[in-house]
């Protein structure tokens, strides 16, 4: 049996956190940028404690209207201020609940900016080294950010996505493209199995590419897929893959 971490973006107002938490092993909790406040963070952390799920902060561009999925051309100082405020809100709430922050994962457009842009990746590396040098960062494999984490010895987990299609360069297909989001639980389970067992992923053009991962994400707001998360986990188990 192979064990893999399955993470999910939660605390985003989707009302499915309690159902999802029993099937995952780590969660990324919105902390005010695209969604969330002290109350929603606390409620999600309490669920994580109940189900023994590792909890991390999920900072975003401050953009509730677009759910943090539109790039914002902000300055280095604004980046640091915003990410600091969001993570501090998470940590202050976690301290009250009695939880330690396991990891940090950027959300949406900020995830892609820090993964693929020299400026944003530099800012995040600088931020991690200064404030959180021992905290795990969830990063996109084959990204600029992964290279810098290796260079500066920042602890990180390579993240794959169960519910997103990849292109031939092992980057996520834009959500503006048709069928970029995987909603069928059998398709998602097959993609996870390929990542875990073969360390590969098949692109939207049918090309197999190497993809080594440490954790796999399913988006909490992918409601058509998450309603079948129990079936995803069951299919994985039948193929000798456990979540943990």
Automatic annotation (TrEMBL):
It comes from the Bacteria. InterPro entries: Glyco_hydro/deAcase_b/a-brl (IPR011330), LamB/YcsF/PxpA-like (IPR005501). Pfam families: LamB_YcsF (PF03746). Gene3D superfamilies: Glycoside hydrolase/deacetylase. This is UPF0271 protein.
């Amino acid at each position: 049996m192979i064990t893999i971490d399955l993470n999910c973006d939660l605390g985003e107002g989707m009302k499915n956190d309690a159902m999802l938490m029993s099937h995952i092993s780590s969660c990324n909790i919105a902390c005010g940028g695209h969604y969330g406040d002290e109350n929603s963070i606390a409620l999600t952390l309490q669920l994580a404690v109940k189900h023994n799920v590792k909890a991390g902060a999920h900072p975003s561009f401050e953009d509730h209207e677009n759910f943090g999925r539109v790039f914002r051309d902000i300055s280095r100082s604004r980046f640091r201020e915003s990410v600091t405020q969001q993570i501090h809100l998470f940590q202050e709430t976690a301290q009250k609940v009695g939880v330690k922050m396991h990891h940090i994962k950027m959300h949406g457009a900020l995830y892609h900016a820090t993964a693929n842009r020299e400026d944003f990746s530099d800012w995040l590396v600088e931020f991690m080294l200064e404030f959180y040098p021992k905290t795990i960062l969830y990063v996109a494999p084959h990204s600029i950010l992964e290279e810098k984490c290796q260079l500066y010895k920042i602890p990180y987990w390579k993240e794959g996505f169960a519910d997103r299609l990849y292109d031939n360069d092992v980057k996520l297909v834009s959500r503006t493209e048709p069928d970029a989001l995987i909603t069928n639980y059998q398709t998602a389970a097959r993609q996870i199995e390929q990542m875990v067992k073969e360390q590969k992923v098949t692109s939207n053009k049918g090309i197999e590419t190497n993809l080594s991962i440490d954790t796999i994400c399913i988006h909490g707001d992918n409601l058509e897929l998450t309603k079948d998360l129990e079936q995803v986990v069951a299919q994985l188990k039948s193929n000798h893959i456990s979540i943990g």
